[in-house]
Amino acid sequence: MKCPYCGYTESKVVDSRPTDESERIRRRRECLKCGKRFTTYEVIESVPIVVIKKDKSREAFDRQKLLNGLLRACEKRPVSLDTLEHIVGEIEVLLQNSLDKEVSSQRIGTYAMEKLKSVDEVAYVRFASVYRQFRDINSFMEELNKIISQKQGN
After folding, report:
1. How far, in Å, CA of 132 to CA of 103, rounded?
2. Which of 5, 18, 23, 66 shows a CA-CA span of 20 to 30 A to 151?
3. Looking at the 3D structure of the chain, how many domains does it have?
4. Which range of residues forms the domain containing residue 111?
């Protein structure tokens, strides 16, 4: 395992435990050269999920790409990285457990929006504005009005 700080390839495992969903093993490592600690995740290799994009092109599912999109939506919001990693993990499990090995980017976006909605409404609206490509202020206001009416219904 290559140290992200100095690039040295030797490290020792300081702590090892399964993640909450028991899909991965979280390992705390310490670089044998610089002594800094970093976290790695060990994942069972499985059949890759292919994402069908809007232009009908296909690419392998990239959890980091999804996490980056969620991070952008949650910028300057009180949402922890652990929460976002948990959301990505849940979506990945949903995709792995489905019978389809090809999934549309729209379905992944819908899953992400559903998860974000319960975590942070501002982040949800930010993500939705990019995902749904709001054309004007009216389409943006429609989405906000849906949220408001759902809150008033509770």
Report:
1. 17
2. 66
3. 2
4. 48-153
